[in-house]
Structure formats: C-alpha cells, structure tokens
Amino acid sequence: MVKKLRYYARFILVCLLLRKMKLVHELLREFTKQVHEYIEVYDSEDRLGWGMVIQEIREFVENESMCSVLDAASSPVVLTHRLNACNSPQVEKCGSGYLQLSEVLIVGNCYEQTRFSELSLDMYRMLQTLERDPPGPLLPNTVSRVGVKGEVEGLENGLPGVRVNEEPNGSPQRPNPHKYLLYKPTFSQFNQVIAAAFKELSATGAMLLYVSADGIRAPSAKYGDEPHSSTIGYDCGGVVTNNRREQEFNVKPKNTNFKEPHCIHPADIYPYTRKPLFLVVDSDNSNAFRNFPSLFGQPFVCLLSPEVMPDKFEGMRNRGNIFTLFLHCPLAAFAYVCGLTTVQLQTWDCAQGILDSFLVECYRILTRSKSLDYSYLQFLVDDFLRLLVLRYCFCSIVLQLHRGFTGSSFYPSCSPALPESEMMNSPVLHKMIIELASLFECRSMFATPGKGNHSFRTY
Q1: What one-character DSSP code corresponds to residue 365?
Q2: Which of 158, 369, 415, 423 could form an SS bridge with 302, CB 3.0 to 4.6 Å?
Q3: How far is the first Cα of the chain from the last one, in angstroms, to the nearest whole number?
Q4: Positive or negative, the Cα torsion across 379, 380, 381, 387?
C-alpha cells in the first residue's frame, strides 16, 4: 500500500512538470482517498507524514497559478510557459555570437516558500521557463491553439500550425539544456555539481546558474555597501543553501550567523567564470553579487532581484518571488503586482501581443546601443538567455513605473549594466506599458514618465 501511495505522489509530480493540471486535480482527489483508506485500515504511525504530503500538493497547486486565465465559459485555461515560436519574439540575430545554453543549475532554499517534494515554486517556474515545448498532441509536429478538452496546448498566444520543433529559419530545433535541480544543497554538494556542469561545457556552451535562496549578510554589511578590496567576494555575505539548525530543530533561526558553512558567496563562483556564465540570483541579499570582476575575460552576465518588496507582497513570499515570476511569465507577474487574480482569455491574448511588441522593441534598443556590453551580445544569440534578458528589462521598467515600488532597493539590477537609461527614455516602451495597464484597468497604479513626483533610477 505504501508503494502505491508513493507512486501516486511521484506521478502527480510528473503531471505537474508536464502541465497536465486537470489530471493533477483528479490524481489528488484519488490520492487523498487512498491515504484516508490506508490510515483507517492500518492505523499507521506515518499518518501525519502522508497528511503533510497531501497538504504540500494542495498548496503547491493553489499557489502555482498566480493569475487564472478564464475562457468565455469562465473556466480556467491551462497555459504553457515553455519556450516556443509563439512566446519568444522573432528577432534578427545580432553580432557574431555563437554561444548556446547547454548546462543549467537550479538551486532553491527559501524557507517560507511553498514546495512539493524537493521542488520549490521558484525552482518549478524556472524549470518550466528553460524547457522547449514538445510537439503538440493533435499532430506530431504542430501546436494547437486549443486542445481536445479545451486546454491551451503549447502556447500563450499565436496561431495554430506553428511548428515547435523547428527554429524560425527552418533548421532543426536545438535540444533542451541539461539541468541539475538542487534543493537545499550543502556547499559540498553545490560545488560538486557546478564543477561537473563546468566540466561538461563544450567550446560553444554556456552555463546558467539560478539561485533562489534566503540571503545572509555580514554583521557590518548594509544596503549599498561597497566591498573591501581585502575581502572582496566574501565581505557582503551571500545566499544560504542549507541550514542545519533548521533541519535539526525545524525552527527558522531569528539571528543567522554570518559564518554559515552552507553559504554561497560571490567569490565561490569566481573559478567558474573561466567559461561563459549566466547568473540569476533571486534573494533578499542579491546585492552581494553585484560587483563581479572580469577575471578571465569570458562572457558573464548577472541578473539580480530587488532586495526589498512592498509590505503587501512581503506576506505572500510563500507563493514565490516576484522577480522569478517576471522571468517565468511576465504577464502573470504584471497582473500580480496590479492586484489581479483573474484575466479573461481575450484580454490575455491582447496583452500578450503588447508584450511581444515590447520585447521586440526592447531588443532593438539593446542591439543598437553603443554602450551594450560584449557579454550581452554573446548571450543574446541563445533563445533562452535572450528571453531572460528581455523579460528582465520588462520587469525593471514595470517596477520603476509602478507607484507601489519606490526606491532603488525595490528594483532589479544587473551586471554588467544594461543601457536602461535608453529604455527608460523610450516613449515607445512607455506607451506599451501604459497600454498594458489600461487593458488590465489599472492605469492609476503607474506613473507617467516625466510627470509627477515618481523618481526613476538613473545610470
């Protein structure tokens, strides 16, 4: 009987990864029934454990969808957020870059965040973001707008008949990058895995390290502190990937010792910048990773989350971090910061069209900028990394225009710096954000650039 329950739990996880949400709900009901029968028949001592598994799954499914998209019959529509030709803006290749994302490390350790098994919500969202859509179920190589049972299959917007196993130029689709999922790893585990991924990188390969974890600062480190040359890479703290005290006592420590053994400091990553590295840090101490030296001259980009959130979002960290949500599904994040929980499918499709135009225009501004760093020119060639950079730009501009986010600590940052001043001064991008806000009926939440007292970050 226990083996059967374990099978149910594992199969539910597989269905979550495949976005078979209707099947997830059916399996959850059956799984709950089986657990209750097991407890009644065997009066098992592990009844609390199985009850916690049911609760974890329910909370994960509930919190995974930050914004429900409803069809004409007010039924929820299941959307995929994997990469395909319809949710990735079609742009011309820039520069002479040749890098391809081939190795991905996804690390998670947010104490308050909802999880199921060893997969937190942030990890789940980033895992979905870094996957290509498989061929649709109706025809072997075709994506359909609406599936057999009314579920959207394979795209967020666009027309049916788009081939998802081909690149825009007709060449075969590139394979998905190889991924490592690390939930609460010790430092030795993290170091071992990143070294293995580093070893597997080819001459044209790039590695992405995504970290969603609670931050830890040095006792003297404060917001905006610059590192000291004598201890550069360690004096601003880092992110905690595993807390032994939490495991032993199941209590979140109020005061975290700076000398935490399972803490990733910026300097711990320096050796792996010998090859192209794309770093994403979503933490309340992301600023510690802001000043990365160019030690080996290889392409390196670091996208960093805001360190502070408005009070009304602080109490909802169990639903995942806003920065990761922007990288995963920009429209859902936009609706979330505007306080929306449901959006009509027709409105969603219109909003997706505006977002696509925004990303294309943003790409045009970046590639035409004379100040764009060489690393971005190399990484923008890859489909996944290009989408992450463009969604970062969308996140940055939205939060800077949003009246609820005031101050540089509420905005994301990156290294090397992007020409964000050129984007913030773009009337075309401003117009699209205002159109999106008007479409979602939340225009009053956004400031008009050049008017009012809302201050914008300058570079």
Answers
A1: H
A2: 415
A3: 62
A4: positive
**Is the distance from CB of 181 to CB of 293 less than 8 angstroms?**
no
* CA 364 – CA 46 distance, rounded (Å): 58
Angle made by CA atoms 305, 308, 312, in degrees to the nearest 5: 115
Quickly list DSSP for 136-177.
PSSBTTEE-SS-TTS---S-SSS-TTEESSB-TTSPBPPPPP
**Closest CA relative to residue 288, chosen from 232, 356, 365:** 232
User: Quick one: tokens of 112?
Assistant: 């308050």
Longest Cα–Cα distance of the chain, Å, equals 71
CA-to-CA distance for 301 and 376, rounded, in angstroms? 7
E-assigned strand segments in 184-267: 205-213, 215-216, 238-240, 263-264
Q: How far out from the chain centre does Cα 121 lie?
A: 9
Asked if the peptide bond before residue 416 counts as cis, ω within 30 degrees of 0, the response is: yes
- pLDDT truncated to tens, each residue of the chain (459 aa)? 788 989 999 999 999 999 999 999 999 999 999 988 888 777 667 778 888 999 999 999 998 888 899 999 888 998 888 888 777 766 666 656 678 999 999 999 988 899 998 899 999 999 999 999 876 553 333 333 333 333 433 333 333 333 444 554 455 567 899 999 999 999 999 999 999 999 999 999 999 999 999 988 766 555 455 545 445 677 778 898 887 654 444 445 545 444 678 889 999 999 999 999 999 999 999 998 988 888 899 999 999 999 999 888 888 888 999 999 999 999 999 999 999 999 999 999 999 999 999 999 999 999 999 999 999 999 999 999 999 999 999 999 999 999 999 888 899 999 999 998 899 889 999 999 999 999 999 999 998 876 544 445 543
Pairing mode of beta strands 238-240, 263-264: antiparallel
